[in-house]
Amino acid sequence: MRPRSWGWLGLVVVIICATMLAACGPTVSIARHPTATPATPGGDFEPQPYSPAEIRDAYGVTSLLRQGITGKGQTVVLIESYGDPMLQDDLDQFSARYGLPPVTVRVLAPLGTVPFDPNNSEITGWAGETALDAEIVHAIAPDAGIVVMTSPVDELEGTSGLPQFLQLEQQAVSQHLGTIISQSWGASEATLSDSAGQAEIAQWAAFYQQATTTQGITFTTGSGDNGATDFTDMQATQLASQRTTSFPTDQPWVTVVGGTTLLTDGSGHYEETAWNGCDGGAGGGGFSQFTPIPDFQKGLPASVLGQFNGHRGVPDVAADGAPCSGWSIRAMGQWAVIGGTSAGAPLWAALVALGNQMAGHPLGFINPALYAIGISSKAAQDFRDVTQGNNSVDDKGVQVQGYNAGPGWDPVTGFGSPIADHLLPDLVAAVQGGLA
């Protein structure tokens, strides 16, 4: 989810000066879907900014940490452009504020670096993304290692930046830097339909397939923050007037995380709706124009499969993405609340780190197991099914009818958000072929 001034796919910042935080964050607020508002399930549930402990409680992680399932012995690799020169200091401050153990991030730049320019919005946006990704991983899997691999090239629309990212990921796999790779970036399928775009995607698809199925790597990404559409131009200024999705979201070898608005009644109870509006953006989701439906999705009910038209549907799962219910993090020396589906990618990457520790081995390609659980009787206890909201778009003169959340899998929130203390043991069993 490439950040643009801490915006676009997967990174949206909300300024706050509240009792929770010591200082104001950056004065950036993105509002791309101002007419859309999230549905509220009922009662007194409302969105709010969340601390790491609250996110852990909401997603069933707290009890796992108490059992010693902390990601120990696992490493998550984050792929970023430019990186963040303040990352270690911000992570230290984040850890101290929230009572997390210290962690030293390993930063690698095998392709070189560029000087940090605080006046360049692309560079500062990526710095914020890097901090967000690392802090979320550390919050969910506090004993996992974190490797940040940076590219000196900005990832834009089309193929721009993708060859460099592929080199980084190939090195991460060949050098055994970690078994989970989180990707908080993306390019619209609408900008990848030419021969160069298709050739680039083919290279990635071959790499993903080998890495997941033979080398035990798990890949995560967010579904995007432009609802049921995406950009059509290299400058990412013009939304398509029809439904579209993005790469690597469209890849069956990648676990794709949709966006929700996380609601609480203030007493430790949580509910979720599909993210749409709520301080800008909407969770991406829909069907690829390029990629055929993978085998693991063919077991979905016939009533659901009627939407697919033989193509890959996304997302697979979901997590909090709305800025109004975002993460309280520290980036570039400031405290801020940040949302977007790129927050879901490192969250699920960290969950896989917990699962790897439980299993005693890398889980690798988890999508078939997720779908086996999702269509089983285990789904009700393993996922918080998100059944309200949609990802329709009404923005910048573009109106696109999106998809509705509903029971079971849907092209807005997938199977829903994790209830990790139930899901992860079942995920381990399903990967090993023993789901009861």
- Class based on secondary structure composition and strand pairing: alpha/beta
Beta-strand residue percentage: 15-25%
Query: Helicity range of the residues?
Result: 25-40%
Radius of gyration: 19 Å
Largest sheet descriptor:
9 strands, mixed
Overall mean pLDDT? 90
* Helical segment count: 11
What's the short story on this structure?
28% of the residues lie in helices and 20% in strands. It is of the alpha/beta class and 436 residues long.
Structure report:
The protein is 28% helix and 20% strand. The protein contains eleven helices and 20 strands. Helix 4 (121-140) links the parallel strand 4 (106-108) and strand 5 (145-151). It is globular.
Layout of strands and helices, then pairs:
Blueprint: E1 12-14, E2 46-47, H1 52-58, H2 62-66, E3 75-81, H3 87-97, E4 106-108, H4 121-140, E5 145-151, H5 162-174, E6 180-183, E7 187-188, H6 195-214, E8 218-222, E9 246-247, E10 254-264, E11 270-274, E12 286-292, H7 302-305, E13 311-314, E14 317-320, E15 327-331, E16 334-339, H8 344-359, H9 367-374, H10 379-382, E17 383-384, E18 393-395, E19 398-400, E20 417-418, H11 420-431
Parallel strand pairs: 3-5, 3-6, 4-5, 6-8, 8-10, 10-14
Antiparallel strand pairs: 1-16, 2-10, 7-9, 10-11, 12-13, 15-16, 17-20, 18-19
Defining traits:
436 residues, alpha/beta, nine-stranded mixed beta sheet, three-stranded antiparallel beta sheet, 20 strands, 20% strand, globular
